[in-house]
Amino acid sequence: GLAEGQLEHPPPLRQTLTGHQGKVYALVATTPGYFASGGADKTLRLWQWGHPRSIATLTGHRLPVQALAFDSSRSLLASGSSDATVKIWNLETQSSIASLNHHTAAIKAVAFSPQGEVLASAGNDRTILLWDTHSWTLNATLPGHGWPITALGFAATGNELFSSSWDKTIQQWQLQPPQATATLSGHLDAIHCFALSTDRRLISGSADGTLKIWTV
To answer: How many other C-beta atoms lie within 10 A of the C-beta of residue 39?
Structure first.
């Protein structure tokens, strides 16, 4: 019989892509057939399926790129870096259109709301910043975690945001007006990632070696 997790016919490796000069920390699918990556070499690279080399390299960050998010409504890419800045890139012109500088430590997560009206960013300064994506001004600051924040995700409605942290919790936030509405506790160690399903469930992964499923 097959061991747990073993595939009878493992899928063949299709392609190996090279170009980054160091570790790759972030990936995001962009327009159909394309994706972006960011890494320790302080760059973002744009890729097209089937091409072994990146089609563009975006530079401007002073330290590693740790997080990426894509807004399909306007073809915008957001990058969060250890240099404590978020940069906004227009993928049609492959140029930076804004630099958001209110964080005081490395940024580990960025997320666009489903309608693209709000960008959330967070990281080692333990705060979540909410940005207006038309003026790129700071709308609100959410100080709700006692340790660095590791991931962000919007619910499909766009008025709910979730954040995970080294403090072993997930916070649920309401955006209008900005406030915390629930704390999900139960993990015994830092939460590094989570995913939201369409049926109002959240799956979290922790350094305690477990996954937890929450109804939110």
So the answer is: 20
Comparison of pLDDT for 120 and 49, the residue scoring more: 120
* Tally of CA atoms within 13 A in the half-sphere of 11 that contains its CB: 3
Q: Give the DSSP letter of residue 117.
A: S
Angle at 67 between CA 75 and CA 39, to 5 degrees: 105
Which of 180, 122, 183 minimizes the C-alpha distance to 147?
A: 122
45-86 residue pLDDT tens? 999 988 889 999 999 999 999 999 999 999 999 999 999 999
Residue 3 pLDDT: 57
pTM: 0.90
Spell 81-118 as b/e; 16+ CB within 10 A means b: bbbbbbbbbebeeeebebebeebeebbbbbbbbbebbb
Instruction: DSSP for 136-150, please give it.
Output: --EEEEE---SS-EE
Residue 187 and residue 191: Cα distance in Å, rounded?
Answer: 7
Question: Token digits for 155?
Answer: 């619910």
How far is 6 from 103, CA to CA, in rounded Å? 43
Max intra-chain CA distance, the chain: 59
